[in-house]
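Subject — a protein and its fold
Fields — amino acid sequence, structure tokens
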Amino acid sequence: MTNFVICINNDSNPASLLVGKVYRTLPDEEAESHNMFRVIDEDKSEPDGYLYPASMFASIKLPQVAERVLMSADA
């Protein structure tokens, strides 16, 4: 699993997810086994993220400099 995904569909959660935005995912083997991602969304009130269907996202690979910036922004 990648550490970052881009939202491609927010129909069921327009207040929590923005289409085209990159989100950080957290490791969750059980969620992955159910085709879900644990995502740090716009709410940010839950440090453990929220579960969303993987079909709402596309996995992406970012340059290391971009990953560092996004990781520090979430801290």
